[in-house]
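Fold Annotation — chain and its backbone

Fields — amino acid sequence, structure tokens

___
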Amino acid sequence: MVSDSKVYLLRYIPQHPLYLALFALTAYFVINRIRQYWRLRQFKGPFSTGISWIWHSKAVLSRNAHIYYGDVNEKYGTIARIGPNHLLTSSPELWSHINAVRSPYTRSAWYYHSARFEPGKDNVFTECDNDKHDARRKKMASAYSGKENPTLEPSIDARVKELIHLIKSKYATPAASTGVSKSMDLALKFQFFTLDVISDIGLGSPFGDLKADADVNSYIKSSEEGLAIGNTSWALGLLWLRDLPIIGKAIGPSEKDEAGFGMMMAQARKLIESRKKKSTTERSDMIASFIRHGVSGDDLFHEVFEQILAGSDTTAGSLRIIMLFLMSHPRVYAKLQAEIDHAVRSGIAPASPDIVSDAQARHLPYMAAVIREAMRVHPPVVNLFSRVVPEGGDTVTVDGEEVFIPGGTLIGYSAFAMHRNNKRVYGEDAHIFRPERWMIPEEDKAGQERLKEMIKTNDLIFGYGRWVCLGKVVALIEIHKVVFELLRAFDFSLVNPHKPWNIVNSLGLFAITDMMVEVTVRE
């Protein structure tokens, strides 16, 4: 027989408010997951992605999420599932449709707010309201295009000269030397260069990293720390804690911090406040353009801070990738160097020490092919860029078939699958670095049509439509000039070909270190 106390206990447990609440919450969670699984049941993905975020958390924590994403689309199709309510696509056509100028899709707060520097405060990258984003972007467009910054290219030229001088005076070995060679971390020098460029054209004065040959403001160290923390928090689903009134201030970056984003923010604010005291007509740089077009207060601070972080990391990443593929492919290296030498001999480009202009550099077809191909095989930005499907859903055509995606679903971008592994667009050898694929004769009509599709797809590396990268123009000017001038002045070789660099992915940006090279001055 059951004792009276046990009978009482059995009757008591189900009626206790705490247990009833726990039961209700559990039931709600289970029912919600079942509903999410069922509404996206037609899309395949790794085990557990229909009911759990565990697979995605593992991918992000690995610091190689881009590889996980690429493999998913390779295995499960052009649209694959990576979470209970998240899809991933490698279709250039679908991604262009999603990002069109008048697209009803919106940015996902789940992803973009993870990139906020402060709780509740947005910049043009993290703003998820389409109307607010478009209005802010309009205020900033002139600055990024260079229309209101006549010293844009000369400022970049000055920093290129400093980069060349630093390498030649401190690290390069003379061509005829039989002495001991030096090694140099090329990844670090590129970061110095891009930080000095963005601070010069953005704030009116370079940080001085190239002249000091040091991370003067500890931006690089702080950025890596901040991105690593953000990546881990996003993977574990903890970023919502930052939005809590008391906890958010305690765990979020503070301008009183001695390291990380907080310290970066404090230094950036001082520079911005100092720059604001000067007339916008004294020097027409990017911050002056922002101010003239009505960007002010905290908005101005967050836009400039975002510019420093994203504008330097992404361009430095591109330069590292291009140079690694050049050094790893001697045939391509020699062919590009020959094109550069011919451009100087024929007068297409100026003699040293003058820096090649952007317009002159764009007349070198093989260099353009090398740059496109390197960023295709290893896209420098691999953010998920999650979008929200509009209410009511959307019927799209993928691989020749109509597919319905329910409203409220998140869908993101698979960079490696769309570019590096895309055999339909780039051919059966898509995974191979071969710049010649872009060199199609004009008389080859079928080839020219294929080239148009390749270019259209490749351009998606910089985004598309409403959300195309504002810094694209500036980044490409930097990239063309640096590649030209480095190969004109030096010969580079990898010190450790078996491990050319250390690379990790944090929130879609690559932290690349220890890219050790040997540099020889060209005669």
